[in-house]
Amino acid sequence: VQLQASGGGFVQTGGSLRLSCAASGGTFSRLGLGWFRQAPGKEREFISAISWSSGSTYYIDSVKGRFTISRDNAKNTVYLQMNSLKPEDTGVYSCAAGELYYGMGPAGYDYWGQGTQVTVSS
User: Fold this and answer.
1) Could you read off the pLDDT of 9-52 as tens digits, one per residue?
2) Which of 3, 14, 37, 41 lies deepest, with the highest CB count within 10 Å?
3) With contact defined as beta carbons under 8 Å apart, do 110 and 103 qualify?
4) Are strands 31-38 and 45-50 parallel, antiparallel or unpaired?
5) CA distance to 13, 62, 75, 122, per residue, from 65 (Å)
6) Phi, psi (rounded to 5 degrees) for 15
7) Distance of alpha carbon 105 from alpha carbon 87, whole angstroms
8) What is the rounded CA–CA span in Å between residue 50 and residue 61?
9) How far is the C-alpha of 71 from the C-alpha of 87, rounded, in Å?
10) Other Cβ atoms closer than 10 A to 4
């Protein structure tokens, strides 16, 4: 499975971005999907995940109510809609896919995309 993330950019505080991650190869409908973020000088952190059936989603507390994860199995794509962005949301956002896994731990994901930069100015 190959993952290609896109949609990052530069926005002001309060702005919005929608990240996309397109998958190729594998059986997309069996993949749990997650988004991770790595800020400058910090370790990578889990942001959000969605199950293969879209029945379950997870978010870290700092993005609840602002970010929404979704997936379109017909397009083999997962999205992260980010609203009310804050400077602390700045970082490189990567998508990850796991065979029947959608937890917070990065070790459970089998495939990773290359990341897309999000910069939020104050």
Assistant:
1) 999 999 999 999 999 988 999 999 999 999 999 999 999 999 99
2) 3
3) no
4) antiparallel
5) 16, 9, 25, 20
6) -80, 180
7) 24
8) 15
9) 26
10) 14
